[in-house]
Fold Zn-dependent hydrolase.
Amino acid sequence: RIDGARLWDGLMAMARHGATPKGGVKRLTLTAEDRAAREDFRTQCEALGLAVRVDAIGNMFARREGRDPTRLPVLFGSHLDSQPSGGKYDGALGVMAGLEVMRTLHDLGLTTEAPLELVNWTDEEGSRFGHSLMGSGAWAGVYPLEKVYALRDGDGVTVAEALDAIGYRGEIPAEPFPADAYFELHIEQGPILERDGAAIGIVTGAQAQVWWDARITGQDAHAGTTPPGARRDALVAAARIIALVDARMRDAGEEGRGTVGFLKVEPNSRNVIPGEVAFSIEFRHPESGRIAHLASHFPAEAAADVAATGCALSMSQVLHYAAQPFDAACVALVEQAAARLGLKARRLVSGAGHDAVYVARRMPAAMIFTPCKDGLSHNEAESIEPAQAEAGCQVLFEAVVARANR
Amino acid sequence: RIDGARLWDGLMAMARHGATPKGGVKRLTLTAEDRAAREDFRTQCEALGLAVRVDAIGNMFARREGRDPTRLPVLFGSHLDSQPSGGKYDGALGVMAGLEVMRTLHDLGLTTEAPLELVNWTDEEGSRFGHSLMGSGAWAGVYPLEKVYALRDGDGVTVAEALDAIGYRGEIPAEPFPADAYFELHIEQGPILERDGAAIGIVTGAQAQVWWDARITGQDAHAGTTPPGARRDALVAAARIIALVDARMRDAGEEGRGTVGFLKVEPNSRNVIPGEVAFSIEFRHPESGRIAHLASHFPAEAAADVAATGCALSMSQVLHYAAQPFDAACVALVEQAAARLGLKARRLVSGAGHDAVYVARRMPAAMIFTPCKDGLSHNEAESIEPAQAEAGCQVLFEAVVARANR
Ligand SMILES: NC(=O)NCCC(=O)O
Ligand SMILES: NC(=O)NCCC(=O)O
């Protein structure tokens, strides 16, 4: 069995990189804090005799050889980057649990049939460069590497520059190598497991998503002298779109998701009518058809709504993917592991995007969820219990070993 | 007569301090650019033999002695600070025209009966520290100096620190000294003069205003996992208030003004439901009663609207002043000067706040407006014609000399 206390200590130690006063983590991808987390991870891997490789987008792979040199490796892992005000467990749980799996095998002197590879994916969150699942997306060939290299953060720094700045533009190509399967443990980041009193979520897939960058252009003007009829207030127009996103989310019922999470006003001076507002829009739903409909119809609906204010709207699509089902055999391995361990489990669809979504396009994949307090995530108050982490890690161990030894 | 070409050259030279690529000016108060403008102004004043004094809030007074030592000085001027994306004329016109008045008297070898003082007020715009008319307000005793010193910009720098950083916390107290009257020339920043084909606006007063700092608190949460019913989205709540401000402005008809010019989202990450939004709210109207009504009723109305979203609103009042009428005798001097010069003029109420509003609480005051293209201001494209600047400067000259020699 894995060592729950050791796993917890590892999680707490990792949470020091980018720790915030409110008990959360600010460890944006490819920053100094991310580099510190990566170095820590690498050191721990090498101490277990794992061979660490870094690819051209900074994804890290730590390999443990198997008994059978003809077998393809079983991959597992998650991500060490965080939101700007994120929690200690989103991503880090999957990586540190993976390390605990490796450590347990090491301590037991066990060698699996197939090799194992523990992965730390680059930029899962997407907060810095605007693209979530960036590292796994580049690796899986969803995004061309040159396009990803050219993405810029809010300060104008490109992904390529940021990789070089922390020394993590690696030697091996960012592309799928032959592998047998991928498993990822992650906190649910939602309320379902806690509500149902389940210790383990058997994740059957992830929901469909569409994301846009939007920009509304009006005209800067004096707040005190410009009469109502002469105003082209980009923020008044943006407020209509924020309301429209919320309304379309609610139209889709309890499973609907629609969010404007990022918004920036220009010139952002209190006595100037805003001339420009840049913001993000996203919708999610388990049914791909609903998201496809929004992807094709929402931009025109929003543009018409903005036109009524005398402003203009432009929207450029950042990502759009259909619901991604996971591999039935891998999902079954997770389900069997939970059952063998006597853990209460339920099937569910992931509300969040995960690296497993893109990896699943290249090989059989599955995910394991564990509950988090009040379903709260992307928040510094994100919280889990040591026993919940331990249960998830044990299921990961069983599923990975079962797959590698099959 | 004043020299229009020289005035224009002076304006263009001043516009180099903080010049932007789009032809505007970014010269936020108490920055390096503001300091350069101040030094330039001081040098030009001293070259004319004027004695320059700086008060404790950085207001600059350049004095020209009169013939009669018992007479109180006649003041005139405006401000050299700008909006973050401001124009070349907002404020600078009044200061540079004042310098041209001094220069013309100097060239003609004329001494007025009363002394003259040309003023450059600190932080008229209010964009950096959130308080417009800050220097004149502190000077007039509207704001206690210690409170003003403690105001902070977006980077946490206080007014006191910013004054010291550019060496403009002056020797003399920031308080009214005995003076006879104040005149201010400014661009209208609105469409009325241009529409009516008038060269000169006889400003009879300024409209009432109320400003608040507002903050909405919801809860950061994951955009993909948090169901509609569990969301407390501070940006969705803020969008309602932006729409409400716009609606209340429109209720007040053509003379209504209501603006959210500044807004900041936390954590401002595209896949995080915003947990906090800070923003500004302002209303203006020529009728003080309407603004007083909003000052007392709007916060409760807005709070009720926000409560429906599960978020909470707090509002703190930044300023509230009634309509300020200007002095009838000073207004008449402006009107007579325009008539004598054969310039088409009309009376109007200022839509913008001006230093003259606070100065008028301490001494007789009046203002002169000149048109600007399309009424556009607080915009880098702000534009005026040299002949318009010259006409305004000539009226300023006549009014100031008439008052000083009466
Ligand atoms: N797991 C997670 O929070 N991923 C970020 C991508 C998303 O927005 O779903
Ligand atoms: N003149 C001017 O633009 N002043 C700024 C203060 C205001 O918002 O009216």
